[in-house]
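Possible regression after last week's pipeline update?

I re-ran a chain I had predicted before the update to compare outputs. Posting the input and the new output here so someone can diff against the archived version. Not blocking, just want to make sure nothing changed silently.
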Amino acid sequence: MPYLKYVVAIVVLLAALIAAVVCCYMDMNEKLLAEARRNLKAENEYKEQYFWQFINSRLNWYRTVAAFCDGPVGSGDENWHMILKEYSSDDMRFGIADTHGTIYFGDNETADISGRSYYNKVIQGKEVISDVLAGSWDGQETVVMAVPIWTDGKVSGAVCAEYTALNLGQTLNTSITEKAGATLVFDKTEK
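New output (post-update):
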């Protein structure tokens, strides 16, 4: 029976030790989760800031182009034809839209965009970033950024830049922003 006291003492000591380890684990787990949340929040804020800087820098450039563009009248002599050819690429095509919904691209291609919601907004004088457009350019998903061209206080056309969703994603996931993963951008419908 003298051993019973020792056994009980050891069991109580082990139970206290286990309880202390569980409490320590739970406390450490909570601290690690809180730290992970803070890091994710900081990373998300950084990437969101980078995203909006990217968008705003592009829109500023399109505003500058719009300020110096002739209105698209279809003559072929407008001053923006050289800009379209120079800045269009495999991942972004640059276009100037007229007030009837025809867009002129750098490769002398045209398209009717009069039914697109982004076009209807930009032609009303609003700057627009479209939703993802399925199959808009050679079957690829794209996003369009557009700003109006103003002539004598009226909208006379629009500067439009169409990016493939793949290229836009690659641009947003540069080495500057890829420290902890990838940037995902969703529209209101979570697409």
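Follow-up from reviewer: compared with the archived run. The mean pLDDT is 82. Marking as no regression found.
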